Structures are given as C-alpha cells and as structure tokens.
Structure prediction request, 222 residues.
Amino acid sequence: MWVGMAKETAHQLGTPISGLVAWIDLLKTRDFKDPEVVDIITELEKDVNRLELVADRFSKIGSAPQLLPVNIYEQLDACRTYMQRRAPRKVSFEFPSVTEFKPIYVGLNAHLFDWVIENLLRNALDAMDGKGIISAHISVDSNQVHIDISDNGKGIPPSNHKTVFQPGFTTKKRGWGLGLSLAKRIIEDYHEGKIFVKYGEENKGSTFSIILPLYVEKNIIS
Prediction:
C-alpha cells in the first residue's frame, strides 16, 4: 500500500509540475527590470525543481536506492540554504560551515536524505512561534557519523519520543503524520542507520539524532 501510494503520488505530480516549468520558462523570456521580480522568479524555479525532487523521491519508495559517497557537511548545508530562505527572518540557523571542517563522507541517496532533513527542519519551524534557533552538530564516533538537529521550540514530551515515528501520529491541525515515519524508514531501512529523539522537553526544545555508517575513504569513487 505504501509503495503503491508513493508511486501514484509521483505520477500525479508529474503533470502540474510540467505545467509550472512551462510557465516559469515563459516568465524568464520576459524582460523584467525589477530585481525583486527577477529574484522571485529564481526562487519559484528553485521551488519547482524541489517539487521535481519530491516526485522523484516518492517514485523511489520501495526500490533499493543507490548510495554514493557524499560530504555530509555539504549536503546538510544545502538543506539549510534552501529552508532558511523560506523560514521567518527571526529564525536563526546555526549549522557547521562547510569550509571550516574536513569533509566527512557518508554513503547516501542524496534525494532521500534531503527529504529527512527537510522534514526535521519543517517540524522545528512549526514548533516555533516565528522565532528561535535551529542548530546542527556533526561528530564522528568510531565508524559512525552522528548528526544532531536541535531547536528551542515547543519541545517533545518524553512520553512521545517513540510514538512520533508511528504512522498517523501528529500534533498538527493539518497533515497525516507520515513525515517522521517515512524519515525512519529512509534512515533505517535504506541507509542502515538510526534516527531517534535524543532530547525533548515540553517548552524546552528538542533534538533529533541521526546515526549513519561512515563511508570508508578508500572506497570513495573519484
């Protein structure tokens, strides 16, 4: 049922996405002088590209994804860049700088991994009242990479630390409560990792932790 629903969703998204691509291409042919309008068109194009990625992610559910060596700092920062542009201005993102740290390689399907991080960042934004801090921390322990995503929003009571990953669980007025369930499947079934609530207290924020196997450097594809 999960696989069928995901693939049908990807199929249904195809037509409207193609239409949006065509409209944006038309807008790009117009000679707009206002820099703000040009910037809006650029951001619209990024959002439509993101929709294409979402459709691609859904189409891959149920299929064994190809994992390639990716610098986790670069991948995490790409997610941060996209989400920060769409977050309230009073929300700060404190993520490690790509240029300040030696690359750490993890075997990833980048599209699916981005889905997980974006879901965590959206949940963090939803837990805030338009202001706060979202931070990320990366560390290496033996042959594993630890990625912590934290926020100082409404927090998750300890009683919900495990149930948040169950299909249908949600505290939002809208939504089906499938985001974290899919995130768990992507990390644990497709990437042989772990995802869990590392910390959460009501009105004190929360931290989600992702643990992934470290990609052995000698096997990195040049």
User: Anything to note?
Assistant: The helical segments are 2-29, 35-60, 72-85, 110-126, 179-190. The longest strand covers residues 131-141.
